[in-house]
Amino acid sequence: MNVRMALAGLLICAVSACGGSNTSSEFDLESYDAIAAQGDALALEIGTAQPTPLADLGSVGAATYKGALFLNVPSAPTIAVLGEARLNVDLTNGTVDGVAGNFFTLIEEPAAGLLTFSNGQVSGTTQANLSADVSGEIAFEDTSRVIDATLSAAVIGEEGDYVSGTVIGTGTTQDSVDGAVTGNILLAR
Fold it and tell me: Contact 184/14 with Cβ under 8 angstroms?
C-alpha cells in the first residue's frame, strides 16, 4: 500500500466519518521516498488500532512521537504535501508541542517551510485526546501559504505507541486569499 493511498484514505475517512528545505535539524529523512516509506510502514503498523485507555498510559509519562504529516494546501489547484513531523506529548503535565518540516509535493518536488505545534493539550477522561495549534509557512516554487490550523489526534495502540489524527484549518496566499487546509498525521514513539 502506498502512503499516498493510505493517508488519502485516512483523510477521506476523517472528513466523512468523524525535503524540502526547512529551518530545523529535527528531521533525518532525505527524500520523498523515505518519508513515504515511513508513512506506509506506520499505516500498516497502526492498522485498526484503538485509542489507548488513559489507565494504560500511566507509565508513559512523556514521549516523543515521530512520523509523517500529509496536507492538502490550497492553491490553484490544491497542492498535496508530505513531510516529517515530531510531537512531544507530556501526559503528566498535559502538554503537546512539536514541529513538522522537510516537505515534498506528491510529484516529489521540495517545499520549504516549518510548521510548529504549540499551545497543545492532553484531554479526555477515558482516552488521551491531543490538540494543538498548527502554524507556519510552506513555500513552493512560485508561491507560499501561511498555515493556521488545529491538530486533533489521539494516542492509540495497546501501550500508547502511536498518535493518529487530523489537521484542519486555513492556508493564506501572499494575496490574502484563504483556502481550506486538511490533512492527517501518523506518528510512532
Answer: yes
- Give pTM, 2 decimals: 0.82
Distances (CA, A) of 121 to 24, 62, 64, 150: 23, 13, 15, 12
37 class by beta-carbon count within 10 Å (0-12 exposed, 13-18 middle, 19+ buried): middle
Task: Give the list of residues 6+ apart from residue 186 with CB closer than 8 angstroms, or none.
Answer: 7, 10, 39, 42, 43, 46, 67, 68, 162, 163, 164
Q: Which three three-digit cell numbers place residue 19?
A: 525535503
List average pLDDT for each run of 10 residues in the chain, which is 189 residues long: 39 32 60 86 86 77 92 79 94 92 89 95 88 94 89 91 94 81 94
Q: Coil, strand, or helix at residue 38?
A: helix
Instruction: List Cα–Cα distances, 53 to 19, 27, 58, 77, 141, in angstroms.
Output: 36, 30, 10, 41, 44
Q: What are 149's strand-pairing partners?
A: 134, 169
Note the pLDDT of residue 59: 65
Q: Which residue has the cell 514541529?
A: 99
H or E stretch covering 7: helix 3-17
